[in-house]
Amino acid sequence: MKVAVLFDTLHPDWEDADYKKEVEAKVEEAEYDVARALMAKGHDVLMIGMGEELGPPLERLAQFQPKLVFNGCESFRGHARHEYALAGVLEMHGYRYTGSSPTALLVARNKSLTKKILAYHGIRVPAFAECHLGEKPMRPSELRFPLIVKPLLEDASVGIAQASVVENDEDLSERVKFIHEKFRQAAIVEELIEGRELYVGLVGNATVQLLPIIEMTFGEADNAEHRIATYKAKWDEEYRKRKKIKNVFAKGLSDELTAKIGDICTTAFHALWLQDYGRVDLRLTHDDEVYVLEINPNPFVAFEHEMANAAEKAGMAYDAFIQRIVDEALERDHG
Ligand SMILES: Nc1ncnc2c1ncn2[C@@H]1O[C@H](COP(=O)(O)OP(=O)(O)O)[C@@H](O)[C@H]1O
Ligand SMILES: [Mg+2]
Is the distance from the beta carbon of residue 233 to the nearest atom of ligand 1 less than 6 Å? Predict the structure, then answer.
């Protein structure tokens, strides 16, 4: 089957053959892993880089006429907030693509809209307030410290550090100002939920398969630091080693609790209109309350990273996992 892998890249001028050289050389890049898996499954794969202009990738797509586009686009011109629009462009041109629709990508990226929708569905979310550009933070009196301040529209823990957690109004104002200035977008201020940090991968549509639950663990108790997934805690290998931060399969969750988490994640998946695959980030408190932090319609699917590892534990080797996403995309209804 003809499958185009569309992704944002630092080399948009490259041709398919240039990318495939990198794929063969096992250069680290999630979409190279995806392409390798699709080729291993016998598909006719064309790799198309998305750069600063829409014209060239659209021309390549028009020439190739893929049956499906594996949509690996995460941002446009350096802005993750344009992610939804790229799915929109595919849709407008009549291409079938993997992953969520513009609606889901837009709503899930907005950490405030997401929480409002989840709350409507009876899912627990941290109490929160928005603080728009040009506004001074006015903390609603019902919001209790400690609070965490995040950019409204980023992901991958961009803009999240230990300093994101604030204990008083002065530090709150300062961190909101930092988010406004550095990211040119609104901030969201949430109550900090203490607890275990869990990630749940899901694959499917009308019926959703839950992958084994992953936990980020934070090594020995270090009371000076908040046990949160900062940017460094996610991506800085040296820091992770030093702080003994690991992503492991969650242990010791009873069947009942696992089922409760599964129900919540499935409800969240549908509530946010996700398609094909996704990941729910949540916190589990000491008394087993489940708080959903956010929903990721476009989670990281690189080989040997957590979602792929979880899929493997569920019996899907990497190639089968990628093929499963393709199958889900082909089998669902397209509007
Ligand atoms: N309300 C909160 N309570 C506790 N920890 C939080 C809260 N919000 C965010 N965090 C921590 O910050 C991390 C990143 O926040 P998240 O909302 O998932 O943003 P991103 O889209 O960048 O992943 C979470 O995985 C969690 O460790
Ligand atoms: Mg997250």
Answer: no
